Amino acid sequence: MENKVALVLEGGGLRGNFTSGVLDYFLDNNIHIPYVIGVSMGACNGSTYVSEQRGRNYRVNTEFLRDKRYFSYSNLITKGELFGMDFIFGDLPKNILPFDMDTFMNSKKEFIAVATDCNTGQAIYFRKGDSEDMYEVCKASSSLPLISNMVDMNGKKYLDGAIADAIPVKKAIEDGNNKVVLVLTRPLSYMKKPLKLGRLIEYKYRQYPNLINTLLKAHGVYNETLEYIRQLEEEGKAFVIRPREHLQVGRIERNKEKIDGIYKLGYEMAKENMDNLIEFIN
Asked: Helix %, strand %, coil % for the chain, to 5?
């Protein structure tokens, strides 16, 4: 049977700089996987891998750390969001640090970004070409609950894809791939715990009961997915690149040296796994 290989990219905010390092190593060494699916920061990393813009995500997450348009507590007060999502998915990729949309759209690689439908609480999988505005799709995939506004597309409201499908490995298998390369941003020992802000979530999203239900169950679904990945590894169907230890970086991290270290760790982990990865793919 012909190998059909998928690349599955977890999110995790600025932990995603680990993934940026992994994918830059892939680009430096001509490792091209034909099916790419990502969530939140994983979708941002995946899109840049498809557009073959080595180093772009690293630059976004280091050069603009202290830019108030990128991140500001005043944004949370005035606009209801901690990160300047219109800047990050608008002026930044279109004008300041241009995203190569032509290369992205013309690439033979398939690309899927995951978002969560706020009305149904279910994962929605946006394929390259499904939407005229991939910036809005990645924005929806990356809009974290409580600190981001919902993204309105075609009359529907969306939030972070990790709410409904944080590691979309089952989707990759359902789409006909028989092998998956996963880049995760948590170590092997990690297990997700229940949300601590349940009451705040129930109040904030009281008009979206299905979303609340999905949020409150997300930790269980995540942990079940980790067990599924372990099974795939045992069967020789999954190859996982992940940090060995917990990455000491918060979602709201301003320390450039920490982010730089996480990026370099991802690059080195990819390099370390290179021979085994090539063997797995082939």
From this structure: 50, 15, 35
User: Are 193 and 219 within 8 A, CB to CB?
Assistant: yes
3-state secondary structure of 267: helix
Give the containing element (helix H, strand E) for 152: strand 151-153
Which one, of 127, 166, 125, 131, lies nearest residue 40 by Cα? 166
Q: What stretches of 98-220 adopt beta strand conformation (E)? A: 110-117, 123-127, 151-153, 156-160, 179-183
Residues 93-149: tens digit of each pLDDT: 999 999 999 999 999 999 999 999 999 999 999 999 887 789 999 999 999 999 999
User: Are 21 and 262 contacting, i.e. CB atoms less than 8 angstroms apart?
Assistant: yes
Give the single-character DSSP code of 193.
Answer: P
Q: Is 210 exposed, middle or buried (0-12, 13-18, 19+ CB in 10 A)?
A: middle
Q: Which amino acid is it at 165?
A: D
Q: 């995946």: which residue's tokens? A: 46
pTM: 0.96
